[in-house]
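sanity check both lines:
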Amino acid sequence: MLEYAKKHDLHALLVLHGESVEIEIYGEGYGPQKPHPLYSGAKSFWGTAALHAQHDGLLSLDEPIGTTLPELHDARATITPRLLLTMTAGYGFGGLGNAAPTYARTLEIPLKSTPGTVFTYGGIPLQLFGAFFARKLESIGSSPHRYLIERILDPAGVAIGSWRTLADGHRPLPTGAQLTARAWAAYGRWMLAHRDAYRDAFNGSALNPRYGLGWWLAAPGIPGNTFYASGSGGQALYVVPSRDLVVVHFGKSASYKHEAMLKRVLF
């Protein structure tokens, strides 16, 4: 495991077994107090937040978003939060990294496919969920990121190092967050401890059984209850409930493979 990580420009590796730290190692220039970009790893926050909001009675994962966003007059009005979070809403690839659109721009983007017919990974669906969620939260004077922090991250003991802001003053949902390895591990421990409450996040869609609500799910040969967050370049938060295991990996390598790392962690 450590050898594989080092071969792929290791920035940080943190392994928690229960409450015990089994491994904590950092590459040159990195350390326990230095926040690191999660890139698309930030997507893992939003299925969790959506389920929490559903429990709070603020939204339903299966309601049409057009009721809340009357600006959407075509097939986009029939999209549900579940379709957005499972990347099956019908949007094309895009909206990742610095290309994340503002809420206003997202409301103008047309569909590429009929909702519920194609899985396409990207940032646009998360930004549309953000526009929908923000409108829902106006009634309680909150915002998507404030809700996430107050209802989930603060109780989990997770401190955000920083989060990029877009031109409209909002923070993007699919990217832009920086956390320390310990903070991201704390989020993993929270998800492990509360996985029953968030179990719907770990159900893949018929179009992609390996992708739930912002979380990737176990590949064949990996313990079936494993779920993980994934960001460009090898950013990862692995949670393995059957082993009481949480692993954080930070790095910078286009050739890093989650399945290869998980096999080294688990076997």
